[in-house]
Structure formats: C-alpha cells, structure tokens
Amino acid sequence: MAIMYFVGYDAPWKLVIAAIGLVLLGIPQGVNNIITYAMIGDTVDYLEWKTGERGEGICFAMQTLINKIGMAVGAFIGVISFAAAGIDAETGFISAEGAQTLWNMLVLSGVISMFACAVPMFFYKVTEKRQAEMVAEIAERKAAKKAYLADKEFNEEIEIAKFVCEELDKFSTDVMQKKVDESSKIYAKGLNGVLSVEMSEINEA
Predict the structure, then answer these.
(1) What would the pLDDT profile of 107-126 be if each residue is shown by its tens digit?
(2) pTM (2 decimals)?
(3) Which residue pairs, CB below 8 angstroms and at least 24 apart, start in 43-48?
C-alpha cells in the first residue's frame, strides 16, 4: 500500500499497479482471518495458564468488539476523507486537489493501520511449541487439583469416621455403661412408669 501511495493514480498504468496492489493486499486477508481465531485460542490457553481461569467468552467477545470498533473507525475515516476532499454531494464533482486529498487520506490511513497491526506481532511470543507446553502444564495442574480434591474428600471421610469411632468407644467406658443401664431401667418401666421416675434417675441416665 505504501508503494501505491508513492506511485499515485494520475495515469492508466498507475491505476493498473494500484489494482494489482489491492489484489496482493487481499490475499493475506484470508490468512489474517484464520490467524485471528487461532490467536484467540492461544490467548485463551495463555489466560488459563496465567490465571487458572479459562475465559473463552470474554476473549471472543473482545474480538467481536474490536472488529466493530475497527469498522466504525474505518467508516469515520471514509466520511472525514470525503468531507476534506470537498466532494459535491449533489453532482459528485471533485477537484484535482480534492482527489489528491482523498487519495492521501485513504491510502495513508491504510498504511498507518497496517503498520500498527504489525507492531503487536513482534511481541507475540506464543509459538506452537510454547502453546503445547502451556496446554501440558494446564493438564498437569488440573490433574493435581483433581487429586488434591480427592485426597481432601478422603481425609474428610476419615475425620468423620474417626468421630464416629470415638463416639462408639464412649459406650465401652464405665460411665457410659452406667448411663446405658439406667436408661434401660427407665425404658423397661414403660410410658406410665416414666411418670414416676425420680429426676435423679433421669440425670444419671
């Protein structure tokens, strides 16, 4: 696109070069669309590796939001360029100076945006090997967490079993045996007999 800007448009052969340039610019766009979604997948893995939380929803939502912002900015630049070029809204007439202004704004904005899009790629460190390492580490963490939860549940069951055993062991003590005997005596008297039981007997039971 930078070459298109310097070549210009004021001759048929220049327009041919511009058309060829647009075709060449369009070829990577298909790859770009594929790479975008692949990079979002890498981002999701990186987010889970970094924070322990997996956020596909927010990552894809942000991608949609950025697309909409990009379309809005592109439309805004187009409108501003048309206004700056002084195009007649009724006749569509544009002066030579206006045509040059329109060319400069549209092409240069494209050049700037393409360079701006390329800058983050120099800082993108998630290679195929690195992504595989992150996925493997995430799997190890999940396995460790699963084992930890299983051990925790097992330990809780042990604590409950220990408590039950301690309660059962109480019945083998002399004090508890006496309480059981007193309770058995009260029970043997029946419902009517309970009414005549002394409070001291109930306390002992």
Answers:
(1) 888 888 888 888 888 888 88
(2) 0.56
(3) 43/126, 45/126, 45/131, 45/134, 45/135, 45/138, 46/126, 46/134, 48/138
